[in-house]
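Q: Here's a chain of 436 amino acids. Please give me its 3D structure as tokens.
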Amino acid sequence: MDSLFLLTQNSNAIMGPIAKGLGLIMNGIYVILDDFFNIQNIALTIIIFTLVVYLCMMPLTYKQQKFSKMSQVMNPEIQAIQKKYKGRKDQASVQAMNEETQAVYAKYGVSPSGSCVFMVIQLLILFPLYRVIYNVPAYVTRVKESFADVVNGIMGTSGYQDIMTDFYSTISANNSVMKNVSLNFDGTTTEAYDSIIDVLYKCTSGNWSLLAEKFSGISDIVTSTQSTVEHFNNFLGASIVYSPRTLISTGFQEGQYFLIFIAILIPAISAGSQFLSMKLVPQQQNNGGQQEAMASQMKMMNYFMPIYSLFIVFFLPVGVGIYWIAGAVIRVLQQIFFNRHFDRMDLAEVVKKNQKKAEAKAKVRAEKKGVSGQTISNAASINTRQIDAKKRKTMAEKASSASKASYSDGAQKKYKEGSMAARANKVREYNEKNSR
């Protein structure tokens, strides 16, 4: 378990590569802030990193929000399909219901899996990001380099291993964060070097003072490094390395009441911003069946996520809380933009474009099966009933006239079961029925 927190980057088969990729992005942002603006601050790096991540996920976010908004319009059609097949469990009925449901989704250009994918991506980012924030020197090169002088001074001191072991034993007894790291003097020189940085990165002000006493010959270097580390880890007077829980305990011990205030404020803002971002998301209507279950789940999420945010931010490093708050604020701004965009959307035009896309995809699928585009066009114009040639209708005409006819079993029998004409008419017949 301890090896996961060593300066050598996380080697987990799944989280490791993701953490490394996130670390590269954070390292690039830190370098830009340092080179162009002379700013060395991990908290600001995390905020900008969060903005970059959410901008990259914006297309997926748009699909998720579009589904939520469109569900308010298309749910009556979904409900009609569910009502039609209610109690019918045979394979043919289940397949037909799924096909008709997917036709409605295609009509409005949405996918019900969008929300799930979005949540999975968020989790895939959150857990590796926690590793990056917890051990920034392993991923941000210039932060690691800031420890070079003091670590070289420590390792150049005679008997440094015993001194550091004694130092670690003393501070770990009163610093819960130290329980997740350890010194490693049994491996290579590089491993020993990295493990010392692991310990120093978690040091409090009192720990640094003790280190200066233990290595009095390099006390000036210790003090200088402490100032640098506290500078780039500072966020409103609190270190991003520690959790609000630890900061509250430290605040009471050292009489730093402003630190206690900040430690309470961070999880509170995180929960509040999460709640606001969830409330702005368009809610699905409760129309029974699967839609009722989905609406109920979304309602639970509206309350679960803020509570979860409050809990996780309270016990994890402040840096994680900064990510959660920044993410929630960005989502609020995104949601305001999306809501205004969807309110101005011409639904009829959207449906028209989606129908064209669906027809194009159907044509491509058919052609892959060996059916030419001309064959599809000819098949669409074939009348499946033996009527007078003057009264024959093309596929387009049938689709148009279907919107004026009410649904009935008899109307369904006008077309060959399973034909393209029959499927096209089903959707239009349901629409007309539900609009009355």
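Q: Can you summarize the key feature?
A: The two ends are 63 Å apart (CA to CA).
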